[in-house]
Amino acid sequence: MTLKQYGFKDTISLFHKNPLPTWHHQESKSYIDFIWMNYEIIPDLIYASTNKPHIVSKDHSVVTAYFSYDNIFRNKAVAIAKRHNTRTIINYKVITQDEWKAFTEQIEELCPSAESTYLPDSRSLNRL
Which domain does 50 fall in, by range? Predict the structure, then answer.
């Protein structure tokens, strides 16, 4: 999976339509350095850009992101609260018949059968 699929966004692309080159060598240049961030903290991002390094002469630019500190403590509390959240990912290929039967019985117990007056057709399902 890619960082985008995990919910991350390249900070430079949020502020610049055409990516700024981060690597230069003679006539060549390329966009190869990034700061990736989760979509949840994008509202705290003020600006992102590339800058020439001031201390040493390098062929790379420095990728810089500026954040608002207004919600830094709230975000920390949210991050701490989420740290212990877990989720179960079920591998359906290895479930046994007994496990399926137990699951089916549990679902039938939790969700009693009720006659549905609405039966969707393919047109209404395709609109979902």
Answer: 8-83
